[in-house]
Design brief:
431 residues, alpha/beta, binds nicotinamide-adenine-dinucleotide, globular, 45% helix
Length: 431
């Protein structure tokens, strides 16, 4: 099939590359000329395990192409995926500016029947809005369908998730679009994962409901972690005991420094806004959001209780919002570093892949790729991201390199007993 993917960020690049790799002809459209130039020349723009290799293969074979030319991108494709960003605006809603712009471009240049697929995370009702904008901008009346096909990929495992998704949700009111979408996704359905066809409005809500549920589980455990600390229980044991229950399951039950990233924070807030706009209660999600905001400060609060932060040097391991990605949007590490700096600390930050992105927004931070180098002569170490690279280090060497053997483990990656046995002043979250 001939596919256009508008937006070449984390979702667009994975989607475009993934569909090209299945044998489709893909055009990736973006308004960022530099990005398009670099991608056309084979320079990958994000870190995503496994993506680079299939990207290079498909670029070489010509199955994936890059352009800033909206007309060409619209006219040369049958299916157009909208994968542009929908960041939080000043009212804490999803900013639909880019989605509307793409819809307008599609309307202006439409030359024959197209399926327009909303893959960006957008509030319920946005498919109708896209339909309206396209219709208003059409030069002549041409038939088209707007489909909601929310994306559930996880950064760090996005290629795997594209190839083997838990489910594919297609929201449509058109039999024609349903057939074409089902045939596009047929190769992925071989993995026995369901293609769920539903109405458009439900599909749009499924995406927010899924992210809000996962965020709720994290805030749920973070709230309980305080009770564990006060009573002497261990939140990891509590999570384990809960997770054995099939009705609950073990995932997303980790207490820590809270959730970050380009999705959960903004999606929870956008859901709250949508609920309010529809005169519905939003107290549960407001609490989830509030608990998470508080949680990002927890490690600094703990450190402050045992160390004079002014004029100290603190090492922070992990900058990305989670392991296996270079994405630092809304990463807890940023808030931690900002708070420490405002209290007068010097920062040594270490991350396996996110340093380049961090350099663009963090000032007065010394960056290290090597975790041992990062901690040399530091007054304390904070673990902000649970990269595997930090799990099996030589803790005796860590103790020698640190000026004070203080570790605040914001991700509970170490065993408190072992750490105290080694002579560390060790604090996790909820343990
Ligand atoms: P991103 O910020 O990484 O990329 C967005 C891209 O869109 C940028 O390259 C930008 O230049 C481009 N763009 C902006 N306006 C454009 C326009 N008018 N025409 C063409 N391109 C334009 O965003 P992302 O992380 O890939 O997320 C995209 C959408 O997918 C968001 O709605 C997000 O909520 C959703 N989503 C993201 C993830 C994730 O893990 N990142 C997962 C699921 C869903």
């Amino acid at each position: 099939m001939k596919i256009t993917v508008a937006g070449t960020g984390y979702v667009g690049l994975v989607t475009g590359t993934g569909f090209a790799n299945l044998g489709n002809d893909v055009i990736c459209l973006d308004i960022d000329h530099d990005k398009i130039n670099l991608l056309s020349n084979g320079v990958m723009q994000i870190y995503e395990p496994g993506l680079e290799e299939i990207f290079q293969q498909n670029l070489k074979s010509g199955r994936i192409k890059f352009t800033t030319d909206g007309k060409k991108a619209v006219q040369e494709s049958d299916i157009i995926f909208i994968c542009v960003g929908t960041p939080e605006n000043e009212r804490e809603e999803a900013d639909l500016t880019a989605v509307k712009e793409v819809a307008k471009t599609i309307g202006i240049h439409m030359n024959d029947y197209k399926i327009v697929v909303n893959k960006s995370t957008v509030p319920v009702g946005t498919a109708d809005l896209v339909k309206k904008i396209i219709t208003e901008n059409q030069q002549t009346k041409i038939e088209f369908d707007v489909v909601s096909n929310p994306e559930f990929l996880r950064e760090g495992a996005a290629v795997k998730d594209f190839e083997n998704p838990d489910r594919i949700v297609i929201g449509t009111d058109s039999l024609k679009a349903e057939k074409i979408m089902a045939s596009l996704y047929r190769s992925r359905a071989r993995t026995d994962r369901p293609i769920m066809v539903t109405d458009i409005l439900s599909a749009e809500i499924i995406k927010y409901a899924s992210n809000a549920m996962l965020a709720t589980r994290i805030s749920f455990m973070n709230q309980l972690s305080y009770l564990c600390e006060i009573t002497g229980a261990d939140i990891k044991e509590v999570a384990k005991g809960m997770g054995f229950d099939n009705r609950i399951g073990p995932r997303f039950l980790q207490a820590g420094v809270g959730y970050g990233g380009s999705c959960f924070p903004k999606d929870v807030k956008a859901l709250i806004s949508t609920l309010k706009q529809n005169d519905c209660d939003s107290d549960l999600f407001e609490a989830v959001n509030r608990i998470n905001a508080k949680q990002k400060s927890i490690v600094v609060k703990k450190l402050k209780s045992i160390l004079e932060i002014r004029d100290s040097t603190i090492a922070v391991w992990g900058i990305s919002f989670k392991p296996k990605t270079d994405d630092i949007r809304e990463a807890p590490s940023l808030k931690i570093i900002e708070e420490l700096q405002s209290m007068g600390a010097k920062i040594h930050a270490c991350d396996p892949v996110a340093i380049e992105n961090a350099k663009k927004i963090l000032n007065d931070v010394e960056f290290f790729e090597n975790p041992y180098e990062a901690i040399r002569d530091c007054d304390a170490l904070i673990v902000a991201t649970e990269w595997n690279e930090f799990r099996n280090l030589d803790l005796r060497a860590v103790k020698i390199l640190l000026k004070n053997p203080i570790i605040i483990d914001g991700r509970n990656i170490y065993d408190p007993k072992e750490m105290r046995g080694l002579g560390f002043t060790y604090m996790g979250v909820g343990r």
